[in-house]
Amino acid sequence: MTDYHKMWNVIGLDLEKHDKLLNVLRAIYSDVYLSQKNRPKGMEYFDFVISEVHGLRIKELLEHKAKGGKVVGTFCVYVPDEIIMAAGGVGVGLCGGTQFSIPDAQKILPQNLCPLIKSAFGFKLAKICPYFEVADFLVGETTCDGKKKVWEILNDYAPIHVMEVPHMKKNRDKELWFKEVKAFKEKMEEESGIKITPELLEEKIKLVNKKRLALKRIFEVRKALPPPISGKDALLISQIAFYDDVERFTKKVNELYDELEDRIKKGIGIVKKDTPRIMICGCPMALPNWKLHHIIEESRAVVVCEESCVGTRYFTHMVKEDCPSMEEKIKAIADRYLKINCSCFTPNEERIEQIVQYTKDFKVNGVIYYTLQFCHTYYMEFIKVKSALKKANVPVLEIITDYSPGDEGQLKTRVEAFIEQILQ
Questions:
Q1: What is the overall mean pLDDT for the chain?
Q2: Residue of 316, 404, 307 lying closest to 356 (CA atoms)
Q3: What is the pTM of this model?
Q4: How far is Cα 229 from Cα 234, in angstroms, rounded to an integer?
């Protein structure tokens, strides 16, 4: 295994804390992922990515910067990858998914704040995330009140550009969002020194659409009875999508899809055909948050769909291709991203209808609605989701949790009881 300590030291990581983090993550990954049986061979690539997620990938990003390229840290699926790439940049996801960094964050931030926000902020404060340290600047957004205020504080530690995401989808909101996307294009041009041409933007629109399509294909094969891949592995692929090289990632996902299609033809499933099929709805599960999936799949069930930003919301809808002018291309990008059904929007009937439709498409036996503590929009939206699922005769369990392992026993008991209810 390559020793990257010299590189980590150069970029300013706290080496002692970072080593502790990696040791914790290696143990968790081995327990959650490498213990699985009958995994597709194509998952070996994604195992490799995780083994080098703070090593080889960071080396690649530093090489990109050495050639004059920019690295842009993002926290949300509303930030347009196409524009970052058209300006010669690389986008990397910075949402936090571990308890490890939260104590450092709570030296400044209040305890009663979303763990995803605290975890990310703690990564920067404690200097234990190399992606934060190699990023030239960050891009925040106004999807929730907690994030909005944290960006003001985070700006003291790293430069951050904030995109205003409207919380309704009326014409005036669409106009605002179009202007925000256009302003982001100008920001990327300013930071990179590269003029984004219609040709460059079109090339990246098509490239990112191919990535979305590859991810969508993985979700499509999960509709099979039985599914050819575990929910944990599918989640891992979606998480890696925020970090890996786009072309390489797309190629490897498509290769895996071919293997999964072959498995379906041969009747090879990851579980038995009658295994209860669970869909998880709600908050995003940032790397390395695998807690709930692991509990579910250790409790005689399989996760077949994630209605989440690290799931269907990431790849649903394509950007319209071959628009004739720059203005129309930017509008096509803005239109596509505003179709993402985050709980920050009101009204949000489209999301609720989409959840019900997914239960049919993925032959779901039960829904687990997952909310991170203090995430008020997802917490409140559960009321309407629960009502819609009741009308559709789909059992639902609400889980409110954080990243700590302290409630795993309680969660396992509740999940097992829910699955038992489905089996009756």
A1: 97
A2: 307
A3: 0.97
A4: 7
